[in-house]
Please model this.
Amino acid sequence: MDIKTVGVVGAGQMGNGIAHVFALAGFEVLLNDISQEALDKAMARIEKNLERQVSREKISEAEKAAALSRIRTTTTLSELGTSDLIVESATERETVKQAIFEDLLPHLKPETILTTNTSSISITRLATRTDRPEKFMGFHFMNPVPVMQLVELIRGIATDEATYKTLLKVVEKLGKTAASAEDFPAFIVNRILMPMINEAVYTLYEGVGNVRSIDESLKLGANHPMGPLELADFIGLDTCLAIMNVLHEGLADTKYRPCPLLTKYVEAGWLGRKTQRGFYDYRGETPVPTR
Ligand code: NAD
Model:
């Protein structure tokens, strides 16, 4: 199937990036959110990020203008029904995602492919709530979407080969690289990354190192571009905790138990960059370790 129009549901941190890369690659994008304010913020963010690509000479002024002209916004979900492809990227809550697919179904074309950008919810389970589990897949982008090269493609038990092949072509058109993952908790990237971050928090909790020594060690000793605690603050400590809980519950192995210190930071509302405090305090000129 030739995908030309894409409906993106949820215009948050990820949704705006997804709309950005699709529009830049020539797809017509209809971006939806329940909040008009989120849509306005997303459009402002997309324009700013495209402008940054122009100033770095990655794209031309004309490409920026063309991409912007390909994105429309709406708070009416049913308008997305005529899309060839839906990318759901709303809040990470199963009931929210189920309700979105249920509300969309009566308006969809029979051939529309449904995908979700979920980081942790079962693709197979979400697919069963739709009329087309064979045309349903996980389409997992990395943050920030315009910068990161990888996209994980996750097939549910019922996903058919034609849907998978269509999405492989879409990823290629986006200029990104696909990694195929099976539908098990946290897929590939987060299955490996989150236990590493959680272990870094244990290393801090047990006093083996402090915030700075742990981050420096991984940057200089393992050639990681960011330290694990700095990265956790970037992702959001609530998100890290939620994914560790999914691994712990989904795989029933104590090696995935979330570190009590990670839970404590989340209880404090110190969620990382988005709340200005996490393993570092971002309220001043330069980030200062909080432990
Ligand atoms: P976010 O909180 O920044 O944005 C979520 C958006 O969804 C909000 O604007 C909210 O208004 C909107 N929304 C809520 N209910 C809706 C509904 N019924 N219809 C339409 N819009 C609705 O969250 P995010 O970080 O952009 O995450 C979105 C999805 O992407 C989640 O499934 C998350 O797991 C996944 N994801 C996140 C990251 C990350 O690093 N943040 C990385 C990969 C995947």
Q: What stands out?
A: DSSP finds eleven helices and ten strands in the chain. The chain has two domains: 5-181, 190-289. The pocket of nicotinamide-adenine-dinucleotide is lined by residues 9-15, 32-35, 38, 89-92, 96, 100, 117-119, 140-141, 143, 235, 239 (CB under 6 Å). Residues 36-55 form the longest helix (20 residues).
